[in-house]
């Protein structure tokens, strides 16, 4: 270990600096850095982490020469502060704080106001002119020191405090006067003697060494060890200890305390922004007993307020110059705490300031314009959460909310409205009532119209890739799923949430960003998309390699996608087109058909409708590829299940209910996710694939003849065996060639497949010989790799995350260790046998930043995600590429 | 290519031999071989495959010198046969047959009776004294040559034949006389002229060269090319052509024809066995118009029959000496065709004789005893199908059966009985009626008692690993599943099979070896297990490395398993024990419990029952390991689904029907196979695992104290993540240690896991660190790797196999390319991180020979299969190891 064990920081000098975190801890290094750039930090010194480790390894012995170094620095501190440690008239008080190389908030110990005893407290009282404050500080110090250093049960101090409050008939601390605190001090000291058999130490040096020792020891207290285990922090880092002069903003009318941001944290405007209180301590600002004042005009909310700029112009100017210095030094917006003690400005802390999404983007862009940072840094600085916040209304953080239940945050944003318990009802109600929240056990494809009308969707079941979740994300609508606390009684038309009953029509709010379900309406904020958003997004394109496409099934979705910068459609699900009123009937006719002829007749009715959809999409995507997946879901999804509905439908279709019922029974499957769907349908009924390909190619030919560039990519789902793809490919090629001959035009089109089954990944070399592109269906792949049904997995995942069996929902963020391994195998095998293979992903993971990083690192060509995730995907793709190149 | 293009074979000499298949084709090499060992084969010669390839590559030109070689050999043939090609008095007739290196039955062309024309036909008539035969041969030759060589539509010949039959008012060929055939010959020749503008060639050499050319060309006809593509036969093999003298068994009373087996093909007895007909051709034996006679006493069925031995003792003795020669040369029982032409014996063909399972085993064992083959060869010679045939009753091959439908052959053997439509009903009916076949849509665990009572099980749904299939195999009971042609109407109590209606109580037969469903009762044969079976089985143990264990859930199963030679239990499913009348109630109480306390109370009731089961099994398996799997199926499997049953049960349990209904609803899952089952249950309710471990360990301790050696292996199902195993392992260890402390005895036990999810295989290195053994659950692994639900896969698989998308049902025989790849990854990773890891497999594939070969080659320690598959597994394991070492 180093000879030097104590590092001083103070007026315009410091022995440490920012990059000495390992030796000085995060806090210590930061204090040194602040001092180095001439910020007026209250002086002090840092004991190194090496001392902590030595102390632990040597049974509580300090290294040689350590005491001397501490004493020297303590002397220096007194000189600099012009106060004496232990003086009864002009006492120096210090804080003793832990500070490890890695932040471990609240895990280790801290002692404030150290240096108080029966003598020095009087000095503090006269210095502040506030006896009550002095004795309150004193009793707090005894309480803190008594519990932390002397290991007396904290509750016992609280009991004394309570008894005095009771005796004085008051309910909160602030109502106690100086005399009461004196009495408490006395009782506290008696408690210490009773509990430990020793007097509370009045010697300030004894106090200092006791506190230091306690902080060093706290590195190895139980909760710190457990925290390190969970967070994977090495045990051999040790903690530093910071001893720093206490300063006070409550020493008279020429003292003050405040908090400031170097720029407006709400909107990012380049204005200094902050609040302060004259003659007050930091905690007064927080406690909200006195209303803080704006530091300057631009921070003003009300006209009659007095600004710091007006009251203490000199102090304000010094603060303002520090503001500029901070931004230039830290190259980011800072949040600083300051105290003015008798006309002297102290900066207590500076750190990167929290900001709204809006502000985050504006500040990043402005900093580039002001040449403080480069574009790369700006792109790295904005978080996916920031972007999310820009795209969806959020609950006003100042709102008081009553959370009644929590589910999975399936689609971000907040929405309020009246509870409605069926999608059909929602459509009816929507005639008079516009603010609705659909609450269901789960949703199904038939519910789409109703879902579209509601402000948000809440389901009791399902996971992050359940129907409700996928559809809501596609619509950009807030959604909470898998909310197990909710019991829905469709008959009584109520929902029960942990014994509270809500009726159909009651108002609730859901927060799809957090998963919260909230009682009543709450205020929301919806950021505007300002110019800076577009600028930042353009910058992402300069860095990213991945192309971003969207999962879009309609011309409207396609339009939104282009607005958000999608460079193509990575997944167009044809089945969503089947649910229109007209269409579903034709689809059902097709399903009921007993023979190929009748089936073709029904398909002929669907053909022109599908074709129109494709034309609309192709038109919007002019010049960009459109990946269209052939029919994927099992046919029973298009039929009703309940007898009543079957009877109604049978009437409509002119068949007997028995026939319909028998078809429903025939199509019933024990595990539909593993059943007759995907290409299995197309192989049993090639005429369905043929109809869809005809619709795609007729649309492509016609739109192309209108002068628009069309790039269709036809995608076969659920392939597990190259022979499946071969069979379907034959149908695709035959149909496409025929259509192009009829239309007398040649269009370049591509044929590829989803990789969404483990077997497809494992045999990707064979499959790649027949495919021009792969698109990973990570939802299904996660499902089969884990053996988790995404419709049922909710409660299991909850248990697993709670028990720390898995870290994150694998349906939300790619399971790199399992599913990721399969993907790597597939990419490697696929590219090896077909180097031209285009590789993308169209599962829900395409919009998840961590997953995007994985796809980027593994050589994907594109990710495809729901339209409202596109900006996030663009950002994440750029960040991944920048970080990749930094390594 | 070689100079020599024609290889002669004839009296005691041949230019080729058996190992020249590539040059002479299979048939040619075999004819040479027969000649070489001095069998009296009709002489002839073989044109090499090289000529075929040259001919194809050179636009139908023959190599230089080829014609000369053919002509020379033709001359030699005439001399040897003492007949002249084209002679009107003593004509030589030949056959021209294709014969490729790899058998391609029926794909290429053959011409018989070549050498006939208007002159030679008279010679044949006088030689045979049978004008009708001569002209029938002639018209057949024209028809064959006309269609094969001259490409005249075969139907046109048939039309002429029909018209003549009509004119003569007869319905079959045999009724036509010589005059009619003469007329047909005339009409055929007219047809040839009309169709080709040419006369039918009367020049016998022109006939010969035309036929040779046609056979060479047929190598590249469409169906042969397609056949090679499907069977993966290289296109560059070419076919040989065999030209061989025709001999006739119908040239008088000193001529005969017959078929013989060197040993009895029904029971394997070491007696020469065969049939013959005097003055007849081979086809007369087959056509069944005359009844063939026994060749000797030991072939006699009726007393009054005249044997060949009696009638032609010299011929018989020659044949008998050939019998011995054949067995010594081919070292297997042979099936030979012979013809006696005017007192001269000819052997037309010899090949390995087909035999019953019984005979196969006896012959293999006898051959070893007679020192003709070694044990290794004997083990390789018996097929798994032979073994299967020994263990289950089979339909008598002589029975005429009416197959009414076909399903999947889920459990081998044939069974007949009256249809019963519910398991419960079966139990009732069984009081009076013992022969029952249970017919259901599908079965469920509640049906076990009923299944056990019936002779066989037939289901309309499900695949090779559906509940019915697995349970039936376990019981050794015939079972056909996934029989889609069956519609069951439980209300009307009928089943409809392709519009035929069967009533409850009607008799049907199912054949679980073929998947056939048969109308009425049929005669069955049930081979006895003779000594040879045991001898052969013991030999397998000398060669195999794999250990064979059984899937057994009861002491009875365990007993059967030991009888068949299992060396342990590889899978004991605890849940099957839950379905007893007493038990299921306690299980349901446990499921309905709202809290841990109530749950434990219910579990306490189950504990002693489970413990007794384990004691019984441990007792039987003395000294052998028993792998016990903790609870696996989803809890809803233990509850009824229909309202009526729910009401009854609620009454029994003293809870409201609403509460029970609500629990059923709560447990409902969209895809139960991917739902809350396996270790997921044990993690949610560790008390269930604890109860099971307690039952296992208490049983183990008590049995062990009784002096029996117990080796329990506790297996955690459905692990996908090492943390799941860690959690469950903790419960197992804690409980086991506690029990052993209570019982004051220490028992070595092992903890391992199923590998049945792709994620488990992919992260096997992590999992192996916590596991002492892996057991591959290939049923579930196949399910998730393919994304096939085994309960729903029936119709999909049917389509896929029909369309040649997959070759075999992957639930019956391991999918080596996909699932196999995962298994290889898991074995490699698992062994790498834990070299002591024991690796086994307990899926249904453990009893499939091809799969066993895969497991053996990939270093498994054991396979575990249902009790009745054990002998097959032993044989397959030995065969795999022998073949591995041969390479």
Task: Characterise the protein shown here.
Two copies of one chain form a homodimer. Chain A has 887 residues and is an alpha/beta fold. In chain A, strand 19 (486-489) and strand 20 (494-497) form a beta hairpin. Chain A is elongated and about 105 Å long. Chains A and B meet through helix 25, helix 27, helix 28, helix 30 and helix 31 of A and helix 25, helix 27, helix 28, helix 30 and helix 31 of B.
State the gist of this model.
The first copy, chain A, has 34 helices and 32 strands. Chain A is α/β, with parallel strands linked by helices. In chain A, helix 19 (531-543) packs across helix 34.
- The total count of helices of chain A amounts to 34
The largest beta-sheet of chain A arranges its strands as 13-23-22-15-16-17-18-14
> What is the chains' assembly state?
homodimer
- Major β-sheet profile of chain A: 8 strands, mixed
Strand content of chain A: 15-25%
- Helix/strand class of chain A: alpha/beta
- Euclidean distance between termini CA atoms of chain A: 31 Å
What global shape of chain A is seen? elongated
Low-confidence stretches of chain A: none
Largest interface: A-B, 49 and 48 residues
């Amino acid at each position: 270990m180093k000879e030097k064990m104590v590092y001083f920081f103070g007026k315009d000098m410091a022995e440490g600096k920012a990059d000495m975190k390992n030796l000085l801890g995060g806090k210590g290094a930061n204090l040194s850095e602040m001092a180095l750039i001439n910020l007026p930090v209250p002086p002090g010194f840092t004991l190194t982490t090496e001392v902590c480790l030595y102390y632990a390894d040597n049974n509580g012995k300090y290294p040689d020469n350590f005491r001397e170094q501490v004493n020297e620095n303590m002397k220096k501190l007194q000189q600099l502060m012009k106060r004496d440690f232990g003086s009864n008239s002009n006492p120096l008080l210090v804080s003793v704080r832990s500070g490890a190389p890695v932040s471990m908030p609240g895990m280790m110990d801290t002692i404030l106001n150290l240096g108080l005893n029966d003598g020095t407290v009087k000095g503090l009282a006269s210095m502040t002119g506030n006896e009550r404050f002095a004795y309150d500080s004193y009793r707090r110090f005894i309480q803190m020191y008594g519990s932390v250093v002397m290991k007396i049960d904290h509750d016992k101090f609280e009991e004394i405090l309570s008894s005095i409050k009771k005796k004085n008939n008051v309910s909160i601390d602030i109502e106690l006067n100086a005399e009461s605190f004196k009495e408490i001090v006395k009782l506290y000291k008696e408690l210490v003697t009773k509990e430990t058999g020793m007097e509370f130490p009045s010697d300030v040096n004894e106090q200092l060494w006791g506190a230091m020792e306690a902080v060093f020891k706290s590195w190895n207290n139980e909760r710190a060890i457990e925290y390190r285990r969970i967070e994977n922090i090495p045990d051999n880092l040790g903690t530093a200890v910071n001893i720093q002069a206490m300063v006070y903003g409550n020493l008279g009318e020429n003292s003050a305390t405040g908090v400031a941001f170097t720029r407006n944290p709400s909107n990012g405007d380049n204005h200094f922004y902050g609040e302060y209180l004259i003659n007050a301590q930091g905690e007064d600002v927080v406690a909200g007993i006195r209303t803080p004042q704006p530091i300057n005009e631009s921070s003003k909310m009300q006209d009659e307020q007095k600004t710091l700029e007006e009251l203490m112009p000199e102090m304000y100017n010094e603060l303002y110059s520090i503001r500029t210095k901070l931004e230039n030094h830290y190259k980011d917006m800072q949040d600083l705490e300051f105290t003015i003690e008798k006309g002297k400005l102290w900066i207590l802390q500076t750190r990167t300031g929290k900001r709204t999404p809006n502000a985050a983007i504006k500040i990043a862009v402005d900093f580039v314009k002001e040449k403080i940072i480069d574009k790369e840094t700006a792109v790295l600085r904005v978080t996916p959460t920031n972007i999310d916040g820009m795209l969806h209304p959020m609950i006003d953080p100042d709102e008081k909310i009553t959370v009644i239940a929590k589910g999975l945050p399936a689609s971000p944003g907040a929405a309020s409205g009246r509870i409605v318990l069926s999608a059909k009802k929602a459509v009816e109600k929507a005639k008079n009532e516009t603010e609705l929240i659909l609450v269901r056990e789960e949703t199904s494809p038939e519910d789409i119209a109703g879902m579209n009308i509601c402000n948000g969707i809440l389901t009791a079941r399902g996971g992050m890739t359940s129907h409700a979740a996928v559809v809501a994300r596609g619509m950009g609508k807030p959604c909470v799923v898998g909310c197990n606390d909710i019991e829905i009684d469709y008959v009584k038309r109520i929902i029960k949430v942990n014994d509270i009953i809500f009726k159909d029509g009651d108002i609730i709010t859901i927060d799809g960003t957090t998963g919260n379900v909230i009682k009543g309406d709450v205020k929301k904020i919806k950021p505007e998309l300002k110019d800076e958003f577009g600028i930042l997004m353009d910058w992402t394109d300069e860095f990213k390699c991945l192309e971003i496409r969207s999962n879009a099934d309609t011309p409207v979705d396609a339009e939104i996608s282009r607005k958000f910068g999608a460079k193509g459609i990575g997944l167009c699900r044809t089945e969503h087109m089947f649910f229109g009123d007209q269409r579903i009937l034709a689809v059902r006719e097709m399903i009921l058909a007993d023979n190929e002829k009748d089936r073709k007749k029904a398909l002929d009715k669907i053909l022109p409708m599908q074709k129109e959809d494709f034309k609309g999409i192709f038109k919007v995507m002019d010049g960009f590829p459109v990946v269209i997946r052939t029919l994927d879901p099992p046919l029973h999804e298009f039929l009703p299940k309940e007898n009543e509905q079957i009877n109604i439908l049978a009437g409509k279709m002119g068949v007997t209910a028995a026939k319909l019922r028998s078809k429903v029974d025939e199509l019933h499957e024990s595990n539909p996710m593993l059943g007759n769907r995907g290409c299995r349908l197309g192989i049993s009924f090639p005429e369905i694939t043929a109809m869809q390909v005809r619709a795609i190619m007729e649309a492509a030919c016609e739109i192309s003849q209108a002068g628009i560039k069309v790039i269709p990519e036809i995608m076969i789902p659920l392939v597990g065996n190259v022979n499946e793809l071969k069979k379907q490919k034959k149908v695709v090629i035959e149909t496409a060639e025929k259509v192009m001959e009829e239309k007398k035009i040649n269009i370049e089109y591509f044929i590829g497949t989803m990789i969404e089954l483990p077997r497809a990944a494992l045999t990707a070399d064979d499959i790649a010989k027949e495919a021009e592109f792969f698109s990973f269906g990570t939802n299904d792949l996660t499902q089969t790799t884990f053996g988790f049904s995404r419709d049922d997995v909710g409660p299991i995942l909850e248990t697993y995350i709670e028990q720390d069996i898995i870290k994150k929902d694998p349906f939300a963020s790619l399971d790199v260790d399992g599913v990721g391994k399969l993907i790597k195998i597939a990419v490697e095998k696929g590219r090896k046998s077909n180097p031209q293979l285009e590789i993308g992903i169209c599962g829900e993971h395409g919009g998840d930043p961590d997953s995007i990083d994985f796809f980027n690192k593994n050589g994907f060509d594109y990710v495809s995600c729901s339209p409202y995730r596109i900006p996030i995907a663009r950002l994440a793709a750029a960040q991944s590429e920048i970080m990749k190149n930094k390594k």
